[in-house]
Amino acid sequence: MRIGELAQQTGCQVETIRYYEREGILPKPQRGQNNYRLYGEPHQRRLQFVRRCRDLGFSLEEVRTLLDMINGGTQSCAEVEALGRSHLEAVREKIADLRKMEARLSELVSRCHGGRTPDCSFVEELFES
Amino acid sequence: MRIGELAQQTGCQVETIRYYEREGILPKPQRGQNNYRLYGEPHQRRLQFVRRCRDLGFSLEEVRTLLDMINGGTQSCAEVEALGRSHLEAVREKIADLRKMEARLSELVSRCHGGRTPDCSFVEELFES
DNA sequence: CTTGACCCTATAGTGACTACAGGGTTTATA
DNA sequence: TATAAACCCTGTAGTCACTATAGGGTCAAG
Fold first, then answer.
1. Closest CB from A76, A78, A112 relative to B77
2. Nucleotide nearest to B22 (CA to C1')
3. Residue B112 is part of a domain; what is its CATH number?
4. pTM score
5. With a 7 Å cutoff on the CB, does B3 touch strand C?
6. Nearest Cα to B82, choosing from A122, A73, A101, A87?
7. Residue-by-residue pLDDT tens, chain A, 129 positions
8. Which domain holds residue B66?
């Protein structure tokens, strides 16, 4: 199939697929007489793997690492697990950060009573505290 | 004070301060005979405002909007509140996203029992599901 | 005087895309 | 058959919010 269909099948943009190829995340596919890329199931499965990892917040570098582990053929589930746990920890930290942000924003917003007053506690606190 | 001291006082990098000036977030300061930037308290207070907004996850564009509201002199606390609430909502959505991510990662990781097995459920699920 | 810290401008790089320019190929329709 | 729109290609630049580097000037302390 051509790149447009692969994009549809995987929910990944055409341009992103080309980007992944340039970055070495996807191998170069075969080409037709017209120089169009031609993809088969292995490419599709690999791209779906990449997208799932990305959806889980893995960076491309981490995805690359995972793919290397798999393709090395000497994949150790312990290494994969370690990467997964490390990333899970990062996600939890990010959640914690955002929760702090949320709490502070909630507080600031709750002190807003709207209106056309020149004194806005939201702004005042950000300027002073 | 010079830029290095302003950086220290505000916890903001020298290069970031220059960047903010280029982006129009900070007004151009006066210069000394040596062409060094010279900052006073108004600049410091403004930069601290910018940093606090950034720490709360506001984009530079949103910061710019807030500053315009304030400097327009016709600031309406309702507008500020609206921006704050909208942003708070975005933060909550991001948290929800991350929570989903966390849950999925937790699930995948919990199925990992380590070891040198060629069958890694983590990888298998990402390739197949 | 020397040297290291500080300052300056201009420009490029980061990560993960996304958009655009300019041009070729395919497909569906009149 | 002709046409127009959709699709494909490569190369390059832009997005966002910084961050780093190159090359050069100024200041302050020893």
1. A112
2. C9
3. 1.10.1660.10
4. 0.88
5. yes
6. A122
7. 999 999 999 999 999 999 999 999 999 999 999 999 999 999 999 999 999 999 999 999 999 999 988 877 655 778 888 899 999 999 999 999 999 999 999 999 888 776 555 567 888 888 875
8. 3-128
